[in-house]
Model the fold of this input.
Amino acid sequence: MTLAGPIEQGCPSGLAPVGQGASGDVGAFVVQKGGEKSLSLSVRGAKCAGCLSKIEGAVNALPGVRQARLNLSNGRMEVKWTGDLDANRIARTVTDLGYGAAPFDPDTGDAAAKAEERSLLIAMAVAAFAAANVMLLSVSVWSGHGEMGETTRRIMHAISGAIALPAALFSGRVFFRSAWSVLKKGHANMDVPISLAVILALSVSVHETIRGGEHAYFDATVMLLFFLLIGRFLDARLRRRTHAAAHELAALQARSATRIGVDGTTQSVRASDIAPGDTILVAPGERVLVDLEVIEGVSEADESMVSGESLPQAVAPGVRLYAGAVNLSQPLRGRALGSAENSLLSDIARMLEAGEQRRSAYRRIADKAVSLYVPLVHTTAALTFIGWVLAGAGVREALMIAVSTLIITCPCALALAAPVVQVVTSERLFRRGVFLKSGDALERLAECDHVVFDKTGTLTLGEPQLVRTDDDDDAIARAARLARASRHPLSRAVVAAAGAGQVAAGVREHPGLGLEADIDGVVCRLGSAEWVGAEEVRGESRLRLWYVEGDSEPRRFAFEDALRPGAGKLAEALKKRGAGLEILSGDSEGAVADIAWQLGISDWRAGASPASKVARLEELREEGCKVLMIGDGLNDAASLSLAHASLAPGGAMDVSQSASDAVYTGAGLDAIEGVIDAARGAKIRMLQNFALAAGYNVIAVPIAVAGFATPLVAAIAMSASSLIVTLNALRPGR
Amino acid sequence: MEMLTFLIPVAILLGLTGLGAFIWAVRTGQFDDPQGDAARILTDNEDRPLPDRH
Done:
């Protein structure tokens, strides 16, 4: 790659849009071990071999870099280097190539989950090996039925046993351990009948082999374990992936803050390292990470994430700034009031916890099915045994039939029914930019019949847009010369409307009032009515700016918080699906009423505090509604965790993202409709699968109870049912 | 039938070899980045094995 020519931005194959580079100070995330420093980055937008070599090549070319390796599957990049290379230069190298880069805090919980996944995979491989090899021997026993001599058959069974016994004991550990731990507590779960079936089948088969009997169930036992382990493995993998997705999203928001030491030096620290009493410098445009009391500086803060209020608030010494607010115009110094963990309003944290507890009490469809299933299997097997003994069969024969019943009813298909559907659906959603946080979220999402929206940042873009009139193009272009120097949302809206252009020299920003500059000897002002000396018009839209040049007539610009693309379509689509719609916003009445009218939503509440949002959700729950909450702000976090299911946009506060079941990315709202459809589709598939599994048992159990379930029948029945359930889940859907 | 005393051990041995190879692949992280490995064969850079993992 030559540095002289223009460097192509982003993925050379055009598989991903050019990433946004803003990553803040990554210096606080460097880990030093001996003389070697390492940094983990989360890289967005890398999709192909070109991306890989471009990024690794550029980072490897930096002085002192020992190793740079990008994992294309999960977007993590590990960089190790020695010497005094600045970590920010590494991040900048990546962002300059057109990829997003954010510092990533290696997740300690992930290592344990990965180890569990690996051990399940190995157990599955061992079971697969045993199943394949034992089946080889079993097929010859079955096909040689009637012709094969007793000695040969016994040898075949003995070899099968020699393979199956150690394999089953090794790969069955997961089930034995889990069954034992619940039995000790006096409960039963699905692992109890599984363990019982495996152990009984193995002992009966060993006994039959020694006795020289005709039937041994070694093949069925290992095959059973193999199918069950597929289900377990998929479940573990989904849990790890959803957990990693949640962690990833949190990492994208892992920001660092600037701490001012006693001696006046500044230092970049992680949010988690801030202690109460620290002095923090908040630059314009920076997000406040912990609750602060302002001690120096006058500015304005955008608190839309905290309260839902769309207009910036004036900030002066003594004012309390909550975590999540964005400083807009002037640098501020503040004293940290708490550490990052307890920085959130304590009642929000408490409400969050209450919601989490309620949610963990949710019973998955699979759990319900199992609780019906376990007693049924045990009773059937026991009754079969008693029945055959009473009918005059020998104890040995009765036991054989009972064991074959236990094996054949063992819930392979049941164990695969839910995980396969969840894995397939979450993978499809993942490709559409929706990150699911747990598998059972799909079931809860599918049940929702009432949708509650937050307004600011969820239904609307959360940033004002200039309402254009016919003749103001020239005025906008002139005002933009001042506005380009400011970070105020209204200034940015003016700039967005005007497009690229020049900035006036020496623009002064007066917090709470507006901007001022001398352009060609004329004093130009952009700001509030009071600032430009204009007459305030009452009863109009609250978002407006005035612009004046010298003594000329002031011009007025009006703004509105525009709807996100697709909001109207979404409202229509949800209504068509029979869901009730409602807006719960912390913003003022006028703004909410306007949005509600545009979307045709008659049910709305304005000025809602976090507590009153929670109260409203409780009220809906009392009425029997299953609420889907969609929100992004800190003020929504408690309601998100309390709702039956919840969604948050990718730009939401991290606490809101962690309180919700799924996070969707992208500027539009189209994803929401897709999520609901996918969840409903997944639920139908799961129910179909459970019906298939139940249908299988209706046919198989009588055969087993009647004593016709030879090992051959068991093998065919089990693999057929598992296969049908898996294929049903993989069947392409909408 | 004497052939079986020879063939069955050979079949099992082959199976065990496959199983061993799979376990080795899982343990050494060969499945950690399937997309990256697929792309890496297309790059011209020398791709050295990863340094030992902890």
